[in-house]
């Protein structure tokens, strides 16, 4: 039977989703919500509207939310589920904040709620994580989950500085005009929150994880790694044991034996350790209209197949522990006094580069308060 689909959003992802859906013969796009009124037609049809209530009151079976608006997106999805419509979204910000509520509402209403495109674009990490978790514990997740920051770090590894890498990323369409969420690690944090919630079967919150981005990185930091045959990557990490969960988002120097060493440019990669699958690694495009649309349409196909995505998600706060102590690189100006005793220190070009053993990101952020600094895990 033909299913009717309302698209909320007709931007980078929405347009690609529309093109893909047009080629399918068991779905029909009946309306497209936009933020402003447009007179144009799509394929000769007057699909554009700014009236969400009309969509809510229509006979659309599936609402596909692609607005990128945290508050409105949440409101649209909640209202659609309440009306018994299946919802598919690519919004990591809404899902990382409202997963439990929207999942529970969908279950109560007996409709699907899918968000596979919210983490790492085309990479099918959410479906696979849910499957592996049903078979046994998932103990570890780690990944490069943001194409913009990876593109910029790759450009700097090839000799550029931060500003030229950012400009290049913007020109290539990878970085937004305001790249804050990408370069400060917030975008990755939201994705890690979603994956961690699924891995532990309990609701993780964005504020439970320490995160640090790459907006203060200098060519000398990249060079520090290259002199030691290491590349700098912005990594998200989740480790689970019987005591609780440890999560962090932080720049990390990795060697050539690391599976992510060759994951350059705008590519994303995620690794997962499950009880039965053991070690799995996924590589692919983490963003872009077509790549993200492929994940959105995969979820629409889930809805069409009638299969339910089954997983447990307890409404209780998990035990969140500090990451285990590691060795870190900290670069500050020559004048700064971090009070770090007994560390290896290098002086270079007006800066001090510390190698600090047995510590973690949170402790270093506290020690570096008020200083312009760059922090990265070493290995
Ligand atoms: N772009 C990517 O590579 C990528 C990758 C993964 C996930 N995502 C996620 O996919 C979603 C869409 O991203 P995008 O890049 O396609 O966004 P975009 O290009 O900015 O397009 C947003 C669309 O939503 C409409 N819109 C915005 N706010 C609205 C509101 N309050 N009510 C109604 N319509 C509204 C806009 O209307 P107008 O047409 O009138 O401007 C536009 O059509 C976001 O959640 C994003 O995080 C994107």
TrEMBL record:
PROSITE patterns: HOMOSER_DHGENASE (PS01042)
Gene Ontology MF: a single term: homoserine dehydrogenase activity
EC nos: 1.1.1.3
Record's keyword terms, sorted: Amino-acid biosynthesis, Methionine biosynthesis, NADP, Oxidoreductase, Threonine biosynthesis
Organism superkingdom: Bacteria
NCBIfam families linked to this entry: PRK06349.1 (NF004976)
Record protein name field: Homoserine dehydrogenase
Organism annotation: Peptoniphilus equinus
